[in-house]
Amino acid sequence: MKTITSIQNPFIKSLVLLQEKAKARKQTGTFLIEGFREIELAVSGGYELNTILFLPELISEKQLKALSGSETELIEINKEVYQKLAYRDTTEGIIAIAKTKPMQLSNLKLSDKPLILIAEAPEKPGNIGALLRTADAAKLDAVIIANPKSDLYNPNIVRSSVGGLFTNQIATGTTTEIIAFLKDKKINFYCATLQNSTPYHKQDYTTPTALVVGTEATGLTQEWRDHATQNIIIPMQGAIDSMNVSVAAAILIFEAKRQRNFN
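Predicted structure:
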């Protein structure tokens, strides 16, 4: 088993780059996952691990065997190297290098009456992570990101999703591509917007359904509003006319789940 104890090691420097630069992740088709539970969820979600780096004083041989496949390289590191690579404040002592997955619409496997969340151009990694956590909680068929502005393997998203990045089916595409996909699959889509909308709780979400949310600053683009099965609104009684996108999405999602008897 290889051991690395220097932060000047060229391989460790390449991993720092992988953590910091979307370009490096795209070029190599790999990204970093930190934490035993997150790595475990990634393996369960079909992600392939190239390498596991670990602190021997914190990670047992039994734990390593539970995560690593026959092709996974195991590298023992020291605390200095771990702290150079770790993104979180907590020390779990394990980091994996995983292969990214393609996120094409055509790869989605949907049920007969799918329930899908679509977010158009979400900017903040924390919001994306929260959306993925909510989608996991509701066990949605898929999460689709329209016109993504962030690399979904950004360490902030990996961290804030708490493994939701690995437990959800995720696809990306342009607004035009996604609308065409929904129409081809005969999936009704309801767009959360202030304009020309009806209260969200008056719609029927028991048919194949997609719920579409936009950014807090600008909302959804006109293309979504023009093609929607119905534009919907969450009635608000305060002075502020918007709420956090992940909160709004959760309200819509769990109304749909309620109508489906939480199935």
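Summary: The radius of gyration is 20 Å.
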